[in-house]
Amino acid sequence: MIKTQWRRRLPFWLLLCAGICAISLPALALVGPASEDQSFAAHVVMVLKRGGDRAGFCTGVVLAPQVVLTAAHCVAPIKDMRIHYKDDTGRPEIVEVRAVAVHPGFRADALSKRVVSIDLALVETQAPLDARFSAAELDEAGAVAVGQSVRVVGYGLGREGEGTSGGVLRSAALQVRAPLSAILLWAEDPNGAGAGACSGDSGGPILSGDGAKVLAITTWSAGPNRGVHCGAVTQGPLIAPQRAWIDGVLKRWGL
């Protein structure tokens, strides 16, 4: 188990990045593609969190120089969170967090209670991210159709259960599936090959097929068999219905 004292905070975060959270909290990540995909790298970072003697990571979408959109279940007390990326030389950058806003509709017990949850959060950093990052374009229409092509992007695991397979930015082509919802997007691998979300990819974007807009944020996945949590269904809240909340938080933060 990874343990740390507050006075040794920086070594802890560096150790976490180096190990890519071999001890991982339940999150979601991308299973399937083995190769790296840098086509959306200017809009995506990693969200690190720790709790007790455990540590985990998620993915986040850049909305402004100091704002990242992620899943609400990926956040922790500010002192236990960091934003992570690598600079142009490959050196790890660790950015402290200033503020967190969790969507008022988020329910941590949604699965057990079988209730609707809007699993979204915004994270404001203490310092601006590297200048190579730019804001992702968020969807405003909210119109999706069964069979529509989408692309899921994230830093999560390439192989379920293997923590060291995470930390590589990958993407996979999926397809919108039923049920249609005014709140959630459901997607699956149209080829049935097992691509989809799994551990570490929560908070990552589900993009339109052309990669132009963020339609939803990955928050949950399921596998094809009992005990398998990745590779069958990927799910997340649609962005368009939540634009008022997102814009309201940004305005409150003066951004």
Structural overview:
- It is a single chain.
- This protein has 255 residues and is mainly β.
- It folds into two domains: 6-24 and 33-125, Thrombin, subunit H (Beta Barrel), CATH 2.40.10.10; 149-240, Thrombin, subunit H (Beta Barrel).
- It is built from three helices and 15 strands.
- A hairpin with a 7-residue loop joins strand 9 and strand 10 (184-188).
- It is globular and about 40 Å long.
- The model is unreliable at 1-28 (pLDDT under 50).
Which properties best describe this structure?
Thrombin, subunit H, six-stranded antiparallel barrel, single chain, seven-stranded antiparallel β-sheet, 255 residues, 33% strand
Spatial strand arrangement across the major sheet: 13-12-8-9-10-15-14
Under CATH, the topology of the largest domain can be stated as Thrombin, subunit H
Instruction: Give the strand content.
Output: 25-35%
What is the CATH domain class of the largest domain?
Mainly Beta
Question: What is the helical fraction, as a range of percent?
Answer: under 10%
Low-confidence stretches: 1-28
Name the CATH superfamily assignment of the largest domain: Trypsin-like serine proteases
Class from secondary-structure proportions = mainly beta
Mean pLDDT: 85
CATH architecture of the largest domain: Beta Barrel
Q: Number of domains in the coordinates?
A: 2
Order of helices and strands: HEEEEEEHEEEEEEEEEH
Radius of gyration: 17 Å
Q: Can you tell me the overall shape? A: globular
Major β-sheet, in short? 7 strands, antiparallel
Q: How many β-strand stretches?
A: 15
Number of helices: 3
- What is the first-to-last residue Cα distance? 39 Å
